[in-house]
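Justification of resources, computational component.

The compute hours requested in this renewal are based largely on the per-chain cost of generating structure records like the one below. Each record pairs the submitted sequence with a full structure-token output. That output is archived, and it is also reused by downstream analysis tasks.
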Amino acid sequence: MLTGTTTSPDDPGAAVNGEPRTFRRQFASTPLGARLARHLAVRCLEEWGHPPESDVSGAVALVVAELTANAVRHGRVPGHDFGLRLGLDRTAGTLRIEVADAAATKRPPASPPTSPPEGESGRGLFLVDMLATRWGAEPRDPVGKTVWAEVDVPAGDNR
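The structure output for this chain reads:
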């Protein structure tokens, strides 16, 4: 079992004690930390009934990879980690991904490019926009920002 997760023997994606499922963890603000965050997100979703080969797991893995890579590349502040939070709400049919970093002044653009950029980078938010139902960024107290994205989880999508 993963640290920070909640489980229910009847329905691994169900709310526990009336609360949505959550996973929360801090990671080193390094490429290795971003890779570990993606890996643990996929394992967490598997515990919640969405195996790695499912559409939901694939979409979440890509969104987590992009948001954590951006936190490492653009939001890194020496001496500070980044945080990952996943929240599954089966009733609402939504999985929320939040990545928090310490760089308050480096915010993502209000909207992604309308088509993939031609260069070697810059496609991350385009992918997030394509895979997520909605996404955005908000200030984090006392310092930094949280970039979030929500992915729809269709009822019965536990394949």
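The first strand starts at residue 21 and ends at 27. The chain is about 30% helix and 25% strand.
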